[in-house]
Amino acid sequence: MESIRKESQDLYNRLHSIAEDATFVEQAQRAYPDLPLLPNLRCGAWYADPTTTGHSFSHWAYFKSTDGHTGNWGFNLRRPNLHILPLLAQHRGIVLVDSTRAGKRMPDSLSKTVPIWCAVINRAIHRLKPSSETANWNNKLYTPPGVVSAQEHDRIESRLDGWADDLVASFYRLPELTLPLRPIWITPSTSVFPEFLDVGDRKYIPVICLSASKQIFDGMERRAHAFTYIQGSGDDHELWGMGLTPDLFWQNREKILNESREGLPVLVRSIVSASREELVPTG
To answer: Which InterPro entries match (predicted)?
Structure first.
């Protein structure tokens, strides 16, 4: 067990696993060039290259898996993620990237928290801004088949109106949306990326939930090129990252991935140390 834990926390394994998953994310990004790609913090930031996504702080999302855990479902008014609604209205969709570990197909953040969010937003806007357009909105809850059971789906759906009422009664102001939101799921096992109608013909705004990591039964899989793939490697980076952050990883990606296993800890320490020195005021 100790050797398995050590292999799982190995810096070289983690960073090369992230790089492998990031390649899949880049493929998805090329499939939807007109849609912004947003990392779901914190794990998702490891897989989203800021030089190609162009994301800033306002273009991150924070959907917590705990808000989708069984029996703990909810629309959390402390982190309502309303800042991404104008982006959805402008671009008619987004790609939201996250990951999970240890044998799951996708994180609860994507399979339940985001679907809850979409359905609650739709119902709240329907209440606040009734019109001939919103009258025909599809406000159903959509969850990924085979991931969320029918029983759990029904239990979540029974609570949506209450959460929508809470949002309507809050001090938050919701922007105009011309179409309802709808989650769509993509994982590395997806054989064909979904295609969407032209913007003018769509019946909904897609919130593409991209789970970056391959589903591995025991969470680890040895690769021929000298590293062990760790599912969801971006998770809990405080335990393995030696102070490395997603920003530092992407700024030094080529250097990091070309370093040997033996030399990698030394390189990462130097990168982290240099970044901290830059933060120290001079004079």
So the answer is: Rit1, Rit1_N
